[in-house]
Amino acid sequence: MTEVGTSVPFAPWNFMLDVDGVNYSLSEQAAFARNHTGTEIVNLSSGINALRPPPVLVDTVADCARDPLFWHDYDGPEGHMVARAAIAAYETVRAPGGVLVDPTQVIVTGGASAALVLAARGLHQLGLRRSDRPTALLPVPTFPLAGAALADAGFAVEEAASGTPGRWLPTVTELTGAATAETTVVYVNTFNNPTGECYTESELRSLVRWARDRGAYLLHDTVSSDVSATGDLPCLPAIAAQEDHLAGLVTVSSLSKARAVPGFRIGWLIADATLVEELARLNELAAPSSPGIAAPALLLDRMIMLAVEAAEGRCPADAAQRGNDLLVAALAGYPQVTPGLDEVTAAVSTALTDEGTVEQLRTWRTELRGTLARNIGLLCTEAGDLVVDVPAWRGDFNTFVSIPALAGQGYLDICHRLFREYGLQTLPAPVFGKDERWWTRRGSYWTRLSFAVPTSRWAAGLERLRYAVKELSR
């Protein structure tokens, strides 16, 4: 009898599964609760926004659940047409330089992870046309599921680490210098998870030119880039269009983590329309229909965010109206076959003129940014003796820190002990690239912290971490 292997051929992902096998095991959590009565489990490394979601989004989904537009027959493997049109309208208005995104370039998925898996499978098929061993290139450290998805799709995965003092994210020269003749995909995460870093516009332009000249694809993950950014980020689609390589860009994103609505599980993928057709055929295997009930949240969020960003001076004053016009135009041919469409588009148009609705989402995002700033400040001022080497905060809700007192101890052992003995869920460095030996050689003990939580909970978690580290380092 042949033994069936279950591991993805990507070591960081399997390390994460070993972490999660304890930290997120219901039986392990129940055991902790029994053994530590009254002590709440605190997740210091979740990587999601754990603050309360904007009420307007939750209310919209609840209301739209009664609308036949969102519970009619299958949407098809490309996803719900309303959600596709909303993404296309938002991206078209937000991108400078006349980048036009059509709904045919969008696939709606059950979250960004599903989009990454789908993109990896499709890009591998394209890579096989160029090489018998298509290779994907990742910076280290970065989001582990990207490497896992690419490896599981059949890519050989190469990891590039920074040799530049003061930064984890490898320079573009360092990244491309690690490429081989078989490199067909480069993964870029904005903000980089776990370090919160991002490439500048000039760096991205250099990367796009390199990819264009090599005929390589850029797989761009923007899950956390639009909520917590403290300022405008470079627009990679606009840069790719200017450098004549827009067809070589695949973008994935999601509302699930950023808006604290993971239960809605809605994400998306944007690519060249021809590639989207091929990806939709692959998507039919696993997802013959998108999570349609999540579409109204995406619809309202994208349109209202244009109004919010216009109010903040991030895009033209008429951005919301332009986005709504594009949305309505894209859906104009469907009312006869889709019940409830006219009512939904009319409701969105009304919401865009409602100052209360716009202000609710604007206030929510402002409060989120304020919490992030307070929490990262607390980390640096109150826990400076506990964690060091905190990267400069650029707006993300993840950061990557060193805990010198734990240097030399086993990453998995410490991680599991932090949970079983102290109720702290953490994600140590080997989750984000390379292996435990590589990280041990770098000294200290590195881990991701995610601080998009209420400040009181964050402070309590840091205090418990301080106590745990003192005990574990004896």
Automatic annotation (TrEMBL):
The keyword Transferase applies. Keywords: Aminotransferase, Pyridoxal phosphate, Transferase. It comes from the Bacteria. It is an enzyme of class 2 (transferase). Its cofactor is pyridoxal 5'-phosphate. The keyword Kinase does not apply. Pfam families: Aminotran_1_2. Transmembrane segments: none annotated. Its EC number is 2.6.1.-. Residues 40-297 form the Aminotransferase class I/classII large domain. Coiled coil: none annotated. PANTHER family: ASPARTATE AMINOTRANSFERASE (PTHR46383). Belongs to the class-I pyridoxal-phosphate-dependent aminotransferase family. This is Aminotransferase. It comes from Plantactinospora endophytica.
